[in-house]
Specification:
657 residues; 34-stranded antiparallel β-sheet; two-stranded antiparallel ribbon; Organic solvent tolerance-like N-terminal domain-containing protein; OstA-like_N
Length: 657
């Protein structure tokens, strides 16, 4: 029997199938081997593998965790210059990562260490995620938190469940933050608190440099140190040097005083404050403030300065007083004693405005020791329609209220009448005014007293005429701002009808009306307007008291002519006349126009003298005694002596002679 061969077609199909199977098998083997070679090559080139250095026990759990090598006992890993130790770990060699449990410790170099109860480390990302009782130490700074991700690639640690950073002097806490180990910079957000022995800071966002100990607060922030407080939304504070740089209208306050500016610099150790642009300083206890574009103050020495559009404002009264000068300076004496006092200097183009009083001068000084405000070089004070000037004007305060005023040298008081063409005038060598509870009760003019006064007809308020009087002393006593009596020792005067007034008698030799210099409002204090040429006060040579010499011999320097500061027109001295030459003048009614004078200005203080008729010299016993002072008046003046000598003259009766 002949055996039949397999069909050629069938044989050919089987060979093709076998060939395909063999090819697919070879391809699978090749593909399975290729990735192993690539990973090995890449690992050898980058050396990014996490190395297991030691473990007491290593085993596998193919059911619960088939991808992990389970390690126990003194486990140690090494990766990219960092070494990690723990009690136990799960090592995922394929993903180049591990989990560490118990007493986790990671060391990077000799400056950085990380401790926690648990950590997951990703070798590919170089990221350590530490949890529970986390402590990150870097040089002299230590960060405490419960959750920290540390990026070794960028050397930055992130905490997001509350953290505390401690360096040698400060402790900083927040809800969320970052710490950069290379730059030593820390960023803290949400409920930020920075504490040290000297201050306490709260903020919304804080940048802190642990190397320089400089904190940068962003957003609403408060810094408290004892009674001092700083509010800022953009401020830098050096905790080592105790220096602050504050921007964005930050506010510094201390015991009822506060200051702000576009930028403020404060040095706590030196005790200095410096502020620039739109500066505002407020003393709420004494109810005064200062505005300027530059301010500097040393709290240790008590010296300060304000300049660049500087304005001092007193708001202790119903209406605020605004005063401008090129520069204000403050000096404090006996600063650490119970007898400390201050002097405030304002100089160059001083101008002041309040609704009821205005003033100008070249410079002034306020001394808190005797509560005296002294105006120098062409001082002028206005009150309503009245003007007062002299070489020097002194105003003495008591309990923040005017107590007395003193005009020294070429004193002139002028009142403009309602017709704006006639003026009541008084000139003398010096003038005084005395106040009680803020109300004027006496005004004096001493030596070479000249008076131009227009009496008023009570029936129709018309002017009766011009009364020109010369005397050595004038006293006016007031009650409720109205003249009660006038006193003069000896007087010579003439009453001219309105139609027969000599032109030369209308104005005193020293008359000057400086209404064009007067500040118009609080903004006009910045506009300096000098006096017209020829209207300045004459420079008068004065003699000083002789100097004492041990030899007892007179010296050429015993009498030195001293130039007084410039002022308006000087009145020539009036020759003294004997009683026989005195011309008695008619008395004035007590309620003549213009007698009422405001009680809170130096101009008003002497104004009554400008509108009073000299009284007849009569013997009057007790009335002269009403001129006695309450200890207010400066001793040794001619006015004070005359007030208690009725034999030299008599006080006029109620409302005049």
């Amino acid at each position: 029997m002949t055996r039949k061969p397999f069909p050629a077609k069938l044989f050919s199909g089987h060979r093709t199938t076998i060939a395909l199977v063999l090819c697919l098998f070879g391809l699978c083997v090749a593909r399975s081997m290729l990735p192993v070679k690539q990973r090995a090559a890449r690992g050898a080139a980058d050396d990014n593998r996490v190395y297991l250095i030691h473990a007491d026990v290593l085993h596998y759990d193919r059911y619960k965790n088939p991808d992990a090598q389970i390690l126990n006992g003194h486990v140690a890993f090494r990766h990219q210059g960092a070494t990690l130790y723990c009690d136990s770990a799960h090592f995922y060699e394929m993903s180049n990562s591990f989990e560490a449990f118990g007493h986790v410790k990671m060391y990077q170099g000799d400056t950085l260490s990380l401790f926690s109860d648990y950590a997951f480390y990703d070798g590919n990302e170089q990221m350590a995620m530490a949890r529970y009782n986390v402590v990150l130490k870097h040089r002299k700074s230590t960060l405490y938190t419960d959750s920290l991700n540390f990026d070794r690639l960028y050397n930055v640690g992130y905490f997001f469940e509350g953290g505390k950073l401690v360096d040698k002097d400060s402790e900083l806490t927040s809800d969320w933050g970052e710490y950069y180990t290379e730059t030593k910079q820390a960023v803290f957000n949400y409920d930020v608190q920075l504490r040290n022995k000297k201050f306490f800071l709260t903020s919304d966002t804080l940048y802190y440099d642990t190397g320089t100990s400089v904190a940068h607060a962003v957003g609403p922030s408060n810094i408290t140190s004892g009674a001092s407080h700083i509010y800022t939304e953009d401020g830098y504070y050096n905790t080592n040097l105790d220096r602050a740089r504050l921007f964005g209208r930050s506010v510094m306050s201390d015991k009822g005083k506060w200051m702000t500016g576009d930028s403020v610099y404060y040095d706590s150790k030196q005790g200095t404050s410096e502020a620039f642009d739109n500066v505002v300083y407020v003393d709420s206890l004494n109810k005064n403030m200062m505005t300027c574009d530059y301010y500097w103050y040393n709290e240790n020495t008590g010296y300060g300065m304000a300049t660049k559009r500087a304005v001092a404002i007193d708001y202790s009264q119903k209406d605020s007083l605004y005063m401008h000068a090129d520069t204000f300076k403050i000096y404090t004496y006996n600063i650490d004693t119970d007898s400390a006092y201050r002097k405030i200097h304002a100089y160059n183009k001083v101008r002041a405005y309040r609704i009821d009083v205005q003033a100008v001068c070249d410079s002034l000084v306020y001394n808190s020791k005797d509560s005296c405000l002294t105006m120098y070089r062409d001082p002028i004070v206005w009150n309503q329609s009245q003007q007062l000037l002299g070489e020097v004007i002194k105003v003495y305060m008591k309990d923040s209220t005017i107590n007395r005023a003193h005009v020294i040298g070429q004193a002139l008081s002028v009142e403009q009448l309602p017709d704006s063409t006639n003026y009541n005038q008084v000139s003398s060598d010096e003038m005084f005014a005395f106040f009680r509870n803020g109300e004027i009760y006496e005004a004096d003019a001493n030596d070479n007293v000249l008076i131009v006064y227009y009496p008023v007809d009570d029936s129709d308020s018309s002017l009766i005429g011009l009364n020109y009087t010369e005397t050595t002393q004038l006293k006016v006593f007031l009650e409720n701002r109205k003249m009660k009596k006038v006193w003069m020792p000896k007087a010579e005067g003439t009453l001219y009808p309105m139609s027969q007034i000599p032109p030369a008698k209308r104005f005193l030799p020293s008359y000057a009306w400086f209404d064009y210099v007067r500040p118009l409002n609080k903004d006009d204090i910045f506009n300096w307007r000098g006096k017209k040429a020829g209207t300045e006060l004459k420079v008068v040579a004065r003699k000083e008291a002789p100097l004492q010499h041990l030899s007892g011999k007179p010296s050429a320097s015993d009498s030195i002519p001293v130039d007084r500061p410039k002022s308006p027109l000087a009145a020539p001295p009036v020759p003294r006349r004997s009683g026989a030459d005195t011309l008695k003048a008619p008395a004035l009614p007590a309620d003549s126009a213009g007698l009422a004078a405001p009680a809170d200005s130096a101009a008003a203080a002497v104004a009554p003298a400008a509108v009073t008729q000299p009284a007849q010299a009569e013997a009057a016993g007790a009335d002269g005694g009403e001129g006695n002072r309450e200890g207010d008046k400066a001793g040794g003046t001619a006015a004070g002596a005359a007030a208690t000598r009725p034999e030299d003259g008599a006080g006029a009766g109620e409302g005049g002679a």
